[in-house]
Design goal:
The chain is of the alpha+beta class. The protein has a single domain, classed as Hypothetical protein af1432. It has nine helices and four strands, in the order H-H-H-H-H-H-H-H-E-E-H-E-E. The chain has a four-stranded mixed beta sheet with strand order 1-2-3-4. Helix 9 links the parallel strand 2 and strand 3. The longest helix has 21 residues. It is globular, with a radius of gyration of 17 Å.
């Protein structure tokens, strides 16, 4: 079985992650490079491990998390579907078991809020890990005077964390927001679709999704 550590060292995959981030930088989007890819990979795998999934499934979630944004290399539009096709080609070339490839491809192809529904545990974990990576260090623009609403909302997030309560079957995204930088309403204006997708992902895992902002329950 191909391990996450092998994928993380693969020059071709890393070249696509790097170039995808170049595209995102040119468009003025937040960081989508190795920091984001690695965080999503580890969060997705860690979540499934906490839920009792086997090492093989956790490994697939880590690979999907690491590769999920390679489609940005071609274009931000439809990057989930483009990335899924790219992942299929790469993983087949590496000799991955077709069942494992299929799982990763469907997870990547269904991670974007504009056109997806998480198909299984790996896809659901990827969605929750991706959409919970909200932090000011991803904002590239350091000139606060010309922040747009996306910059303000992301910069306002001083801390974010996914917390699983296995006993209560809930998963909570806890976010600390500097309300002098952005308001809670602005957060919902930008991220409502992502939070609805997180609800779908949590449902797929048999969990209830909760959102807390500055200690207050929002969902």
């Amino acid at each position: 079985m191909i391990r996450f550590e092998e994928v993380q060292k693969n020059k071709e995959i890393n070249a696509y992650i790097e170039q995808g981030d170049v595209v995102m930088r040119a468009l003025g989007f937040t960081e989508h490079s190795f920091a984001h890819a690695t965080k999503v990979a580890k969060t997705a795998a860690g979540l499934l491990k906490q839920l009792g999934f086997d090492d093989e499934t956790c490994n697939l979630a880590a690979i999907a998390g690491y590769m999920h944004d390679i489609g940005n290399t071609a274009n931000r539009n439809d990057h989930a579907q483009t990335g899924a096709i790219m992942a299929f080609s790469i993983l087949r070339e590496l000799g991955m078991d077709p069942k494992h490839t299929a799982c990763i491809v469907s997870a990547i192809g269904n991670h974007d809020e504009s056109s997806c529904f998480p198909p299984d545990a790996v896809g659901a974990a990827l969605v929750l890990a991706d959409k919970s990576d909200i932090r000011r260090s991803r904002v590239r623009n350091r000139n606060k005077t010309n922040f747009d609403i996306h910059d303000r909302v992301n910069y306002a997030a001083t801390q974010s964390e996914l917390q699983l309560n296995d006993r209560e079957k809930t998963i909570t995204l806890q976010i600390q927001i500097d309300t002098e930088t952005a308001s809670t309403i602005e957060y919902f204006e930008i991220f409502l679709q992502r939070m609805l997708l997180c609800q779908k992902a949590a449902d797929k895992l048999g969990l209830k999704f909760r959102l807390q902002i500055n200690g207050h329950s929002m969902i």
